[in-house]
Amino acid sequence: MNEFALLLAATLSAGTVLAIAGLGLLINERAGVLNLGAEGMMLVAAIAGFATSVHTGNDWIAFAAGAGAGALMAAAFGVLVIWLNTNQYATGLALSLFGAGFSAFVGIRYTQEKLAERPKFEIPGLADIPFFGPAFFKHHPMVYLTIVLMAALAWFLYRSRAGLVLRAVGESPESAHALGYSVRRIRLLAVMAGGALCGVAGAYLSVIYTPLWVEGMTAGKGWIALALTTFATWRPARVLLGAYLFGGVTMLQFHLQGEGVQLPSQLLTALPYLATIVVLVLISRNPAWIRANMPASIGKPFFPGS
């Protein structure tokens, strides 16, 4: 029972990285922009957050640095695809490749750095409850803030005027433009907000989740976050649940290895990615359902006045 509680705790922690990035990408796609550069943004934000934590010793400043790095890269991507109308798929892939190379170059001097001992977080009173305390109430505040973020984003998209405008831009930018909304500016703001959240996810990964810097440490998490938005049919609550599902599969491999399960380590390491492929294949069997839920203008350029 205690081992299961620890597995649940590890699942929440691992899923937080995917959830924050997935929610950020959801904002992009709801505005009609597909950014395949999540992996690169997360890597640059990871080294930015780690380096900031090394020099300041403050995790929250490190998160801000990660968010800033992610937003800056997303802004460059946004200018290219929104104003210069470059291909969204090619530009996103280029951003991902650039982020991987740039983070590796900048991070050379930080590969041997170690962060100070991390403080232990727990919710007084609740943390002492058998099973539930270790499983749910001894996490970093960012784990709980991610749940709040999901609820806030759901309210924003479905209950606020600004959220409805954002969704309108993603569904029919021509109609939104005809009503007087600046489609390009709204899309740029959405892309930057999504990039900032990917940046927070990258900083959380290097500062809290693993606390160290290793080249390519995201190990495909940005691509899994991209798949999550489709898996969740562009719904914030489903993104969160999907993130915990994939986080659980990731932690299951370590649990199985610890239990001495005689399976090749390569197969266990591949479990999260195999799960991603299986889920996408199952979803793709019903393309009409995907089309009914996805933003109609996703990945399509917008030309004002055309």
Automatic annotation (TrEMBL):
InterPro entries: ABC_transp_permease (IPR001851). The chain crosses the membrane at residues 6-26, 33-54, 60-84, 91-110, 141-158, 188-207, 213-232, 239-257, 263-283. It is a multi-pass membrane protein. Signal peptide: none annotated. Pfam families: BPD_transp_2. Keywords: Cell membrane, Membrane, Transmembrane, Transmembrane helix. One of its GO terms (cellular component) is plasma membrane. Its main location: membrane. CDD domains: TM_PBP1_transp_TpRbsC_like. It is found in: Cell membrane. One of its GO terms (molecular function) is transmembrane transporter activity. PANTHER family: ABC TRANSPORTER PERMEASE PROTEIN, SUGAR ABC TRANSPORTER INTEGRAL MEMBRANE PROTEIN-RELATED. This is Inner-membrane translocator. The lineage of its organism: Bacteria, Pseudomonadati, Pseudomonadota, Betaproteobacteria, Burkholderiales.
